[in-house]
Write a structure and sequence with these properties.
The complex is a heterodimer of chains A (51) and B (354).
Chain A (H helix, E strand, L loop, with lengths): L5 H24 L22
Chain B lengths: L11 H26 L10 H29 L4 H5 L1 H24 L6 H7 L13 H16 L3 H7 L1 H8 L2 H14 L9 H31 L8 E4 L9 E5 L5 E7 L2 E6 L13 E3 L2 E3 L6 E2 L16 E2 L1 E4 L2 E4 L13 E2 L8
Helix pairs in contact in B: 1-2, 2-4, 2-10, 4-5, 4-6, 6-9, 7-8
The chains are: A mainly alpha (51), B alpha+beta (354).
């Protein structure tokens, strides 16, 4: 009898490992008090002439 | 085994193992609390309830990490096999610790108000579109539900009623549960953590767990792929008899993707399927105990020559014809029906053949 899911175990990690790692690091960089979290969502047009 | 259901298959080893585990958990939480309650240099002291919630959470995450490490470690090194034998108990204890973490956090942060604590958990923070303010508690709750489903169905009763493939698929949800817990920690505790120590530790832990799973999976995949495409023509050369340790096995893939366990015991060689009837556990990672092949996962046993469990049990696994020719163990890749008696190959003292 074959052991089912043998490759599914590895496929699960191939998908989950990078996904979790990238999402986790990205989310952590957005925490308060980091330069990344301080960036505004949109860049507003400056009303200073010549700027 | 299939003869009857027992609430928990206790034996001396499991009781000792569980006792050690409970003492270790109590000590871990105790040390965590004592260290955490020590006054900080700035004069502040931690809230003991919040600290207890953290201690239980860290313990549950550490235990689940251990649960996930046991599988690939045991596949790569036999010394970890005793841990595999007790892994189900470790998983259930992990659920109880996570339940304590969840219960205490729910009462502390959401209890005592006019609305149901569970309703409060999901409605008090609607910032699902924010990363720093994301309601990380919901991720932990989702992981908790998975752990609860796994603990509730951990009994053999459910394994038999759900069937092994369905049960195994259900219990593979532990992987997404672990990913959810990592994100629960990142979006929760680590969002306000000033020190880099905890983010680095969490990342390193996750990399080790996923890395070991990927490495052990790649090794198995490679072994299978080496045989893929070959046609089953005649006998398959497995190894020399002396390559198999006494009362142990060599696991070998066959051309059609099957895996067999070739055991050496008392001067004889027998070959059976590598999949245990219980949970498809790897029989070849077990050993011969009291004359029976013993699965490393939960101790199910089979006689090596006919693949039948000793009385009063009735389980049967496939056997394979085996012979020794020119000092090599050869196996016929065609499986015999489960329970078929096969004469073991006899190892001659000169390493010859029978």
């Amino acid at each position: 009898m074959k052991r089912p899911h043998r490759r599914l175990h590895m496929m699960a990690w191939i998908v989950l490992a990078p996904l979790t790692l990238i999402t986790g690091i990205f989310a952590w960089l957005q925490r308060p008090e980091t330069p990344y979290s301080a960036l505004p969502d949109t860049i507003q047009k400056s009303d200073v002439p010549g700027d | 085994m299939g003869h009857q259901y027992k609430a928990i298959q206790w034996n001396g080893n499991k009781i000792v193992y569980d006792l050690y585990l409970v003492v270790f958990i109590a000590l871990f939480i105790g040390v965590f609390m004592v260290v955490g309650l020590a006054p900080h240099p700035n004069g502040n002291t931690a809230d003991p309830v919040v600290l207890a919630i953290r201690a239980l959470g860290v313990t549950a995450f550490s235990l689940l990490t251990a649960v996930l490490l046991i599988g690939p470690l045991a596949r790569m090194n036999r010394r970890f096999l005793p841990l595999l034998y007790n892994r189900r108990h470790l998983g259930v204890i992990t659920f109880f610790v996570s339940a304590a973490h969840f219960g205490l956090a729910l009462i502390w942060y959401h209890g005592g108000g006019p609305i149901n604590p569970l309703a409060s958990l999901f409605s008090s923070n609607p910032l699902y579109d924010s990363i720093p303010g994301f309601p990380f508690e919901t991720l932990g709750f989702a992981a908790f539900l998975i752990l609860m489903a796994m603990a509730a169905t951990s009994h053999d009763f459910w394994l038999n009623n759900l069937s092994a493939p369905v049960w195994k698929a259900l219990h593979m949800l532990v992987y997404p549960a672990y990913a959810l817990l990592v994100m629960h920690i990142v979006l929760g505790a680590l969002m306000t953590e000033k020190s880099l120590v905890y983010p680095v530790m969490t990342t390193a832990t996750f990399i080790v767990v996923s890395g070991l799973h990927l490495v052990s999976g790649a090794r198995e995949w490679g072994a299978d792929s080496a045989m893929k495409g070959l046609k089953a023509k005649g006998w398959v050369d497995i190894c020399a008899p002396e390559d198999i340790a006494e009362k142990r096995a060599v696991i070998a893939p066959l051309p059609k993707g099957e895996r067999i366990a070739v055991f050496r015991y008392d001067g004889k060689i027998s070959a059976v399927t590598n999949a245990c009837r219980h949970q498809n556990g790897p029989l070849g990672e077990g050993r011969v105990v009291d004359g029976c092949i013993t699965c490393p996962w939960h101790g199910w046993q089979y006689r090596p020559d006919d693949g039948v469990s000793p009385p009063p049990f009735t389980e049967k696994i496939s056997t394979y014809n085996v012979k020794i020719a020119d000092g090599r163990v050869m196996v016929d890749p065609k499986p015999n029906p489960p329970g078929t008696k096969v004469e073991p190959a006899i190892i001659s003292s000169a390493g010859g053949h029978q």
